[in-house]
């Protein structure tokens, strides 16, 4: 099950930093840990994807509000590049499965296939597992630091009423908000612009995908979609 509300409160934003007067996205979900995007081009890549193909998949996105820059895929282990894989599951197509032990998020496609995305996940002491569902979706979500975080890091108080969405907002371009039994858990699947965070356990329970991957997943995920978080 999801951990209690006090810890869940830091799941959406575990740490806060400043860089040139703006929130440092690399420290947003990491606490004391280090570091934390172009639409996928019709389908996912196989093991033989070239660097050029990956650079095209993870290229800039001319979004309606803010242009999303290309991701530097040379900073991401190619095993975390988006691809279609064989994945046997009893879950219905569309279900999202988070595998924190291996830093992957799967979208079940049916017929034994899934779309697999590389992810960052919760660090030691902040991992959770269980069933949830997408209670709501946000584009360029407002980020509000929870009281527990403001107490630890008073500089976050300036955003107590919320930080508007944008390129420097920790939640990024797209967010899936996870619920259980009608209640928001404060955990999310969010868009990360930090390539080096993929394949790491650095957050306080939230799950981050590269912005391009998050847009791909977001566009295919309706509210009420089941989310299964496996044990780490």
Automatic annotation (TrEMBL):
Residue ranges annotated for the L,D-TPase catalytic domain, each copy included: 94-230
Record flagged with keyword Transcription regulation: no
Keyword terms: Cell shape, Cell wall biogenesis/degradation, Glycosyltransferase, Hydrolase, Lipoprotein, Peptidoglycan synthesis, Transferase
Classification via InterPro entries: LD-transpeptidase (IPR050979), LD_TPept_cat_dom (IPR005490), TAT_signal (IPR006311), Transpep_catalytic_dom (IPR038063)
Pfam families, A to Z: YkuD
Pathway named in the protein's UniProt entry: Cell wall biogenesis; peptidoglycan biosynthesis
Keyword Ligase applies: no
Family affiliation: Belongs to the YkuD family.
Name of the molecule in the record: Lipoprotein-anchoring transpeptidase ErfK/SrfK
Protein species of origin: Bosea robiniae
